[in-house]
Amino acid sequence: MPTHAEQRLIAYTPEQLFDLVADVGKYPQFLPWCVRAVVKSQTEQELVADLTVGFGPFRETFTSRVSLERPSRIRVRYEKGPFRYLNNVWTFTPDPRGCLVDFFVDFEFRSRLLQNAIGVVFNEGVRLMVSAFIKRARDSYGPSPTAPTRPKAVRPS
Fold this sequence. Notes:
Blueprint: E1 3-10, H1 14-22, E2 34-42, E3 46-55, E4 58-69, E5 73-80, E6 83-95, E7 98-109, H2 112-141
Antiparallel strand pairs: 1-7, 2-3, 3-4, 4-5, 5-6, 6-7
C-alpha cells in the first residue's frame, strides 16, 4: 500500500496547472512509465481514461474515472485493472507566488509480484512524476509568469 503526499509551491496559476493535469491524453508525451493514454469519454466535469504504464518487464493497463472540479481539484477513482484500489487527488490553491499544489496517491496492486516490484522504486517514481509535470508546465507555458524577474543591468552613459 504505497502512499505518497507532497505539497509544492509552483509559480504558475492554478488554472494552468489544472489544465495540464487534466490533459490525460498527453501523458505519454512527458510522464515516465506512461506508455499509452486513451480518453474514452469526457465532459466538463469528468473523464474516463485507460492508461498503460510500463516499467521493466511489467506493462499494465487500468481504467480510471477522473472528476474535474475546475480549477481547484482533480480526483482520480480507479475502475478496472491490476489494482485492488487507487486513490489520487490533486489540489490547486492560489498563492501570491503562484499555486500551492497538493498531490496524494495511495494504491495497492492485486499481484504481490507487482506490489513488491513497485515498492522498491515507488517514492522515487512519484517524485519523478511530479517533476515531469513541473517541467511540462515550463515547456507548455514558458518561463513562470509569477516568478520574480531579475533587474536588468544598466550601463552608465
